[in-house]
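Field reference: sequence -> structure
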Amino acid sequence: MTSQDIQINLQGGLEARPIAVFVQIASQFESSIQVEVGNKKVNAKSIMGMMTLGLNSGEKVKVTADGKDETEAIREIEKYLSAC
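Structure field:
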């Protein structure tokens, strides 16, 4: 299991379209991936789950991946969320 705190640098935060792209990225991996902020934890491959988080630019989230491609999953998610 691999976890990493990641700051969201996407302009406008994670709204509907950026969430759809995020879920597509997460869904490419076999690992189970969770996104946690505060006391909420959701499946990163769930559009509805991700939308409930209401994440804005500048916020930090904890991303946890568990599986054989967990390191690559975290790396790709960080690359997306950290994009300016």
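Note: The longest strand covers residues 60-66.
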